[in-house]
Amino acid sequence: MDTLHETNRWLHITFGFVGLAAFWVPLFAAKGGPLHRAAGRVFRYSAMVTLGAAGLAVVLPSIRAMITGVSVSDNPEGWSFVVFLGYLALVTGGILSHGFGVLREKRDLTALNTWYRRATAWSMIAASLFIVGWALYWRPDNAILLYALSPIGIGNGLGILAVIGGRRSEPGQWKLEHLNALLGCGVAFHTAFAVFGMNRILPLDLPGTWQVLPWVLPAAIGLPAAALMTRYYRRQLQARAQPQAA
User: Fold this and answer.
1) 39-78 per-position pLDDT tens digit
2) Region of poorest pLDDT, from 80-89, 101-110, 120-129, 229-238
3) Domain extents for the chain?
4) What is the sign, positive or negative, of the torsion defined by CA atoms of 221, 27, 110, 172?
5) What span, in angstroms and rounded, lies between the C-alpha atoms of 72 and 80?
């Protein structure tokens, strides 16, 4: 199991860095151009491998803990960290799937209203509620992480349900959904880098509650930035739609 764990870890690191680099290219490339599309494909498949490795990184320690008889009460922080990683992998996977799904069904986003999409959205919402309940019950020292990032699953899950249910139908809605989803994935990638990758470059040793900073800082910066970018592009799309309506 140690060999499998180590192989999986390097898969996660390698494709995570590839995805992190590929994320920035479409932001500056011509939208819809060849470079934008190529980098988007690299990011998509890198993210899929990274998330698969993250899922395995949740399963393997859980199996080992159960085999060795380590219960949640024995190590609430360790189990809570594993649960939290599973939550992030699930939510990021749901956002990634939605972000590329809207490209396929850009003419009619309600075509995405399938059992799979609904189940994914509700799973994201349920996962958010679960980690809050977990933190309240077990009260681990790292509970603040679970509380701080729990709204992401609820917010994105409800947003996906609204889109596929036809309750969001602004001009160019698919573009806004694609932008929001991919920026959300970018936040997840930068969070992983801030927590795991940065420590390999800089000897960070944050004291006490400051240790949660790498977990929440990318979201604290990225989510408001995503909101501003979405507002900017929404105004552009609405301005283009007005002459056509006239």
Assistant:
1) 999 999 999 999 999 999 999 999 999 999 999 999 999 9
2) 229-238
3) 2-239
4) positive
5) 8
Q: Is the pTM of this model over 0.85?
A: yes
Output the DSSP codes for 35-87. HHHHHHHHHHHHHHHHHHHHHHHHHHHHHHHHHHT--TTT-HHHHHHHHHHHH
The letter for the amino acid at 130 is F
Burial of 10 (0-12, 13-18, 19+ CB in 10 A): exposed
Nearest 5 degrees, angle CA 26-CA 106-CA 124? Answer: 80
CA-to-CA distance for 202 and 5, rounded, in angstroms? 24
Structure tokens belonging to residue 24: 């920035």
Q: Which own/partner pairs from 54-60 qualify as long-range (CB within 8 Å, at least 24 positions apart)?
A: 54/12, 54/85, 54/88, 54/89, 55/86, 55/89, 56/8, 57/5, 57/8, 57/9, 57/12, 57/85, 58/82, 58/85, 58/86, 58/89, 60/1, 60/4, 60/5, 60/8
Cβ atoms within 10 Å, residue 101: 24
Check residue 208 and give its pLDDT.
65
